[in-house]
Design brief:
The structure is a single chain. This protein is of the alpha+beta class and 274 residues long. It contains eight helices and ten strands. A hairpin with a 2-residue loop joins strand 3 (152-159) and strand 4 (162-170). Helix 1 (5-27) packs across helix 2. The longest helix has 26 residues, at 80-105.
């Protein structure tokens, strides 16, 4: 079998990029494309070297190469270990699929420590585009909201002598920050916000909420603009808590906003960005 190293490198660059992208999408991580490309290039270079020196294709070195790919792609991510585990799962799935397809077609789709198949460039580009779309639509945040991650964090919020223990969901769609200080915003269910503010029956509208507060309390609150799907713009009543503590005792520098009456349907009490 004649193997062209440039084809081997190109095919594995594409396959490794897709594998890393799928792991990132599955884990709900925001990874820059150049980091994914760097990880894919690391894997493609290893596949090329293993083709020249077959002893490099032993399993311990394959795992080491996979760790190098993950380090190049995911280093600095808060959930680095989970992303590495997801990469191994996805890579194993792709390898198994390639083996099954190769057996069914009577062709060898793997060579040494990588993939090798000669197909027209347009087919590779089409496969890359389809894989990108599938990873975005079907895989985004699946593991983030599954058993591989504790997505709900417990916080203790103190404000004006009152204290509430709440559960907040880390939501990738919540990029809301305080406009002045850039602090992250914890959006709380209305009942939790009322308990912290010490008021009952806040109206749905944020402006009306602020107007209904006593002057001393209103002076510690403000209105926060936001944008959401299906809503061009809106306002949330927010306040700066005296303290917010995580479950391990660390302080969280954030502001709290009063959200809708229902957010988590009992599973959690609010939302916070990642």
């Amino acid at each position: 079998m004649v193997v062209y190293l440039d084809v081997l490198f190109g095919v594995n660059l594409l396959m490794d990029y897709i594998t890393l992208l799928a792991a990132a999408r599955l884990g709900g991580a925001c990874v820059r494309r150049w980091r994914l490309l760097a990880g894919a290039a690391t894997g493609a270079l290893y596949a090329m070297l293993a083709a020249v020196q077959p002893w490099l294709a032993v399993w311990p070195l394959r795992l080491l190469a996979g760790g190098g790919m993950c380090a190049a792609a995911f280093a600095g991510q808060r959930a680095f270990g989970r992303l590495c585990a997801l990469y191994l799962v996805v890579a194993a799935g792709f390898a198994g699929l390639a083996g099954a397809l190769g057996t069914a077609a009577g062709r060898q789709l793997r060579y040494g420590a990588g993939y090798y198949f000669v197909v027209p460039l347009r087919v590779l580009l089409l496969a890359a585009a389809v894989s990108y779309a599938v990873s975005g639509v079907l895989l985004r945040d699946d593991a983030r909201h599954g058993v591989l991650r504790r997505e709900v964090e417990r916080l203790t919020i103190r404000f004006a002598g009152r204290e509430q223990a709440v559960r907040v969901l880390h939501d990738t769609g919540n990029a809301l920050t305080e406009p002045v200080g850039g602090r992250p915003v914890v959006v709380l269910e209305r009942a939790v916000g009322e308990a912290l503010l010490g008021v009952d029956g806040l109206p749905p509208d944020a402006v009306a909420q602020l107007d209904s507060l006593p002057p001393d309390l209103a002076g510690r609150c403000g209105l926060l603009p936001y944008h959401a799907v299906g809503t061009e713009h809106g306002l949330l009543l927010y306040f700066r808590p005296d303290a917010v503590c995580r479950a391990d005792g660390r302080a969280l520098d954030c502001v709290c906003a009063v959200g809708p009456a229902q957010i988590g349907r009992g599973a959690y009490d609010g939302l916070i960005g990642v």
